[in-house]
TrEMBL record, chains A, B:
Domain Pyrroline-5-carboxylate reductase catalytic N-terminal: residue ranges: 3-107
SUPFAM superfamilies (UniProt xref): NAD(P)-binding Rossmann-fold domains
Sorted UniProt keywords: Oxidoreductase
One Pfam family cited in the UniProt record for this chain: F420_oxidored
Name of the protein in question: NAD(P)-binding domain-containing protein
């Protein structure tokens, strides 16, 4: 199946790599592919430049957002949350119409320093903002509550732990659950929280996630809902 | 040991009952003890009136906030979050000075309907508001992320799950961990998130907690942090 993966950061790379390894076709979408490919320095975290990453994965194509969106039969949003709406506007409502959009982004605002604030919060969520802006697209929020490596390899964390899905379209959620199962998630580990407004809940997990990262000293953990 | 338990709702009753069953002395604090005792009708949830609950537990005394605060060597805040600061002001800074205050409240705002919003959020928390308002008191936020019954009987939920502590005073946190162990929590199930500002993280768990309650259809669950 053909996927557009919007965003070229560590989450985008991780998801794109996994999709390709499963036999899917992937176009990574970015604002300016030429500028992205021209970068030859490691990024701020010391990761190799995307050109090198792409050279090692010739089946992944880098495209402008709109071209990637047109290529994909479904799409994944891994852009930084504060730029997601702009990126998706560049992708184009027409190119995304009728398609499932898996939204992994969190609306973190780093402008006031660390820890980042969430914006929106409480009465709205990034997932809902995207669904409202793209009413023809079937938005499903998932995987935004864990480190990228765990998203595509839940066995990195032993024992039971969960992925959440939020969305208005039952068929789209079922499609996403199949992708999670493909990623290695036990079907029973996926909790359907309800409609897209429940993304408020999972996005609001980020503050405690960041504090747990600090307290544990690493990000190799995930939320598990222990149920009686 | 003598405890003040502020608040007479289900959380206050549950904590007071557990403390008494462990051999501690408990004064429940409320705004107007006579008015509380005069109520003979079940509350809005169908629970029996507090007078009946107290009649079955003669060792628990009901007092005005200030008298309960003076009685307690330590205190527990189980009042509704939007009234906690007012309740604690009535308890009196002098009566609480130097004491550990275990804060279980969540700043839920039901004024705009369901689901409630959190206020404050992001850059502040109820735990920090209380610590700022009562600088001589050693505030420890804990147990605000689960149903009352589970707070004092974690075995109600099988398998591993966690309680969090947030606070500025290491000795106060150690005291609270001992109380959690007394309540039945395995010591290793208690995660020290750091200073009281980390209460932002646990208070912001409430929105997803409420959505999980809806999705699961019951409140007999708790958060577990699965760690690699």
């Amino acid at each position: 199946m053909r996927f557009a993966v919007f965003g070229t950061g560590i989450v985008g790379q991780t998801i794109a790599h996994k999709l390709v390894s499963l036999g899917h076709e992937v176009a990574m979408g970015t604002r300016d592919p030429e500028a992205t490919l021209a970068r030859t320095e490691p990024d701020g975290y010391g990761n190799p430049p995307l050109s090198q990453w792409l050279a090692e994965r010739p089946s992944v194509q880098l495209m402008a957002y709109a071209d990637a969106a047109a290529f994909g039969e479904a799409a994944v949003n891994t852009t930084a949350g504060n730029g997601s709406l702009q990126a998706l506007e560049a992708a184009g409502a027409g190119n995304l119409a009728g398609k499932v959009l898996i939204d992994i982004a969190n609306p973190l605002d780093f402008s006031q320093g660390m820890p980042p604030a969430l914006n929106p919060v409480n009465t709205d969520s990034l997932g809902e903002q995207i669904q409202r802006a793209f009413p023809e697209t079937r938005v499903v929020k998932t995987l935004n509550t864990m480190n990228a490596a765990i998203m595509v390899d839940p066995s990195l964390v032993p024992g039971q732990h969960n992925a959440f899905v939020s969305g208005n379209d039952a068929e789209a959620k079922a499609f996403v659950v199949e992708r999670l199962v493909e990623f290695g998630w036990p079907r029973e580990a996926v909790i359907d929280l309800g409609d897209i407004s429940t993304a408020r809940g999972t996005e609001m997990l980020l503050p405690v996630w960041l504090r747990l990262w600090g307290a544990l000293g690493h990000a190799d953990f995930n939320f598990h809902i222990a149920v009686a």
